[in-house]
Amino acid sequence: MLQFLIRRLTGAVVIMFLIGAFTFFLFYTVPQDFAALSCGKNCSPENLAVIRENLGLDKPLPTQFWEFMSGIVAGRDFPQGHCSAPCLGVSFESGEFVWDSIIDRFPLTLSLTVGGLVIFLILGLGSGLLAAWKRGTVVDKIVSGASIVLSSFQIYLLGPIVLGLLVYSTGIMEFPKYYNFTEEPGAWFLGMLIPWVVMATIFTAQYTRMSRSTMIEQLQEEHVRTARAKGMRQSYVFFRYAWRGSLIPIVTILGMDLSALLSGAVVTEFTFDLAGIGRLAVDSSLTKDLPVTMGVMLFGAFFILLLNILVDLAYAYIDPRVRLS
Amino acid sequence: MTTLTKTEGEKAPTGPDSFLSVRDLRVRFSTEDGIVKAVDGLSFDVERGKTLGIVGESGSGKSVTNLTVLGLHNPKTTTVEGEILLEGQDLVTTPEKEMEKLRGNKVAMIFQDPLTALSPYYTVGRQIAEPFMKHTGASKKEARDRAVEMLTKVGIPQPRTRVDDYPHQFSGGMRQRAMIAMALVCDPDLLIADEPTTALDVTVQAQILDLLKDLQQEFGSAIIFITHDLGVISDMADDLLVMYSGRAVERGSVREVLREPRHPYTWGLLSSMPRLGGSTSQPLTPIPGSPPSLLNPPSGCPFHPRCTFTDKVSGDRCSTERPTLGDGRAAACHLTAEQKQTIFIDKIQPRLR
């Protein structure tokens, strides 16, 4: 198991390096003068030269690449000060260190992800299991029907409806806002509640459908029938035998969804005017603030790789056939 | 009522000897295409310590019958009529809670493919120990010891370490042994083996059959042995039931049915089976046509569309009147006993040489 981890972690580092290299060169093939972008209207050649120097754009490309990559590992120095590792460079727009702006936005993204996750896992898996258990009954039909309707909804549709009902017309709740969790946990909870619920609704519907269908599939497995033939209780067979097999596809999808959410829930953030990683990514690409775009991309890639490894570990935990081979 | 006898020609009393009596069992599934009559008026008995073989093609209702005995059918889509009497208790009307106590305890089942029939997620030991804990209230430790004991009995080498293996670490034959250990862990009175050797190669098959026979001697269980392999059945069973289209078409002791079959379907089955040492000049004769749809079974005798002897029966009885299966040694066919005798001696017996 340890060997597996070491192998996967080494692989992840290599992949991160390749992604970094790829994004770096991709951006520098774009026919854009980045110095001119941050220079503004009254741009004199002298100004341009200074900006070039400040951004490190006057150096040859391999040197720039080396500085970028080594900065991630060891940090680097800029005219505005030392950027400690992991240094992802400086924003063309704000002049802030990219890593700092990401870390600044991350608590919101994390809060959004974790809160939504708790809701959609409990509701989605719960209702999916219920529908599978009560297969063919009215309960199943209601749950399945509702999940199809809800999964065809969009956050940008559902969001304004909920805001309209709870905020604008009745004033039951405040407009969503992020508060620091450690300082004001109560306000944090209320501030995030609407985004959580709206985002989780869409995910819940997907998880309901998925868990229902994989459970029904698993319940038809022969080993599940064997367990029943041994005289095991129906609920025991359901949760011990069928559920165990359903975990594999669920964990797979969960890993992908989580890594996507952690690298920024763009639509949710825009719908509720929250400034998270997703917002940062979109804003940076609109203003062609390439160091930020690259930083956000690497940050997202990190979560994708991390969750990939975690999902593989979960597979090994769930299925002994994976563990031993 | 119909009964199986081991002594030829004699009617067995429907007494305490028959441990399981199935009476006029009808199982229907409602599907999107209509109602499937999977089992249609089936009766048989199994005696304590004896083996009843059930043969028939796929879809003849063999497996459905036995899943119904265990109550493993889907209650929402299946209707069951008739009686399944286990020591006088009617399993058709027994509630699910009670059935759970019977399953794996008094009645156990061995399935066809031990790879898919064992859960890949739990150790072999745990899967054997589970029903033992459930039915006897044994502790984890006792159940584990019992699992080791059972693995020893079914001939798994190094049972103490193997008990912690997962099914995928076992070979096909070992998996089936583990499956048998699991079925026998609570010392059941009735064991239903649903094609237990079909997924195994021939040498392993022979070992498993020997094992089952030995264990039957030791445990004294009655066995229902479902197969479509007539060679296996002649080796294993005492009595034989031939099923076709959800009905029993012939019944008798294994010797009787295999040596002197009396139903055209059984003739077809035996003629289509290759034999070692059989004459190479005698071609194998398949049964013409294909098994009937259970959604819309043929009228009268379900075998009449494929039967080559319908012209011997006066009128259209074969297609209008359902032949009944008499008591004891019997075949459900409109041919008279003399006709059967003549056809068998003239046409069938030469093919079986």
UniProtKB/TrEMBL annotation, chain A:
<keyword id="KW-0812">Transmembrane</keyword>
<comment type="similarity">
    <text>Belongs to the binding-protein-dependent transport system permease family.</text>
</comment>
<dbReference type="InterPro" id="IPR000515">
    <property type="entry name" value="MetI-like"/>
</dbReference>
<keyword id="KW-0813">Transport</keyword>
<feature type="transmembrane region" description="Helical">
    <location>
        <begin position="292"/>
        <end position="318"/>
    </location>
</feature>
<dbReference type="Pfam" id="PF00528">
    <property type="entry name" value="BPD_transp_1"/>
</dbReference>
<feature type="domain" description="ABC transmembrane type-1">
    <location>
        <begin position="106"/>
        <end position="315"/>
    </location>
</feature>
<protein>
    <submittedName>
        <fullName>ABC transporter permease</fullName>
    </submittedName>
</protein>
<keyword id="KW-1003">Cell membrane</keyword>
<feature type="transmembrane region" description="Helical">
    <location>
        <begin position="247"/>
        <end position="272"/>
    </location>
</feature>
<feature type="transmembrane region" description="Helical">
    <location>
        <begin position="187"/>
        <end position="205"/>
    </location>
</feature>
<dbReference type="Pfam" id="PF19300">
    <property type="entry name" value="BPD_transp_1_N"/>
</dbReference>
<keyword id="KW-0472">Membrane</keyword>
<dbReference type="InterPro" id="IPR045621">
    <property type="entry name" value="BPD_transp_1_N"/>
</dbReference>
<feature type="transmembrane region" description="Helical">
    <location>
        <begin position="9"/>
        <end position="28"/>
    </location>
</feature>
<keyword id="KW-1133">Transmembrane helix</keyword>
<feature type="transmembrane region" description="Helical">
    <location>
        <begin position="145"/>
        <end position="167"/>
    </location>
</feature>
<feature type="transmembrane region" description="Helical">
    <location>
        <begin position="108"/>
        <end position="133"/>
    </location>
</feature>
<dbReference type="InterPro" id="IPR035906">
    <property type="entry name" value="MetI-like_sf"/>
</dbReference>
TrEMBL record, chain B:
<keyword id="KW-0547">Nucleotide-binding</keyword>
<feature type="domain" description="ABC transporter">
    <location>
        <begin position="22"/>
        <end position="270"/>
    </location>
</feature>
<dbReference type="GO" id="GO:0005524">
    <property type="term" value="F:ATP binding"/>
</dbReference>
<keyword id="KW-1003">Cell membrane</keyword>
<dbReference type="InterPro" id="IPR017871">
    <property type="entry name" value="ABC_transporter-like_CS"/>
</dbReference>
<dbReference type="Pfam" id="PF08352">
    <property type="entry name" value="oligo_HPY"/>
</dbReference>
<dbReference type="Pfam" id="PF00005">
    <property type="entry name" value="ABC_tran"/>
</dbReference>
<dbReference type="InterPro" id="IPR050388">
    <property type="entry name" value="ABC_Ni/Peptide_Import"/>
</dbReference>
<comment type="similarity">
    <text>Belongs to the ABC transporter superfamily.</text>
</comment>
<dbReference type="InterPro" id="IPR003439">
    <property type="entry name" value="ABC_transporter-like_ATP-bd"/>
</dbReference>
<keyword id="KW-0067">ATP-binding</keyword>
<dbReference type="InterPro" id="IPR003593">
    <property type="entry name" value="AAA+_ATPase"/>
</dbReference>
<keyword id="KW-0472">Membrane</keyword>
<protein>
    <submittedName>
        <fullName>ABC transporter ATP-binding protein</fullName>
    </submittedName>
</protein>
<dbReference type="InterPro" id="IPR013563">
    <property type="entry name" value="Oligopep_ABC_C"/>
</dbReference>
<dbReference type="InterPro" id="IPR027417">
    <property type="entry name" value="P-loop_NTPase"/>
</dbReference>
<keyword id="KW-0813">Transport</keyword>
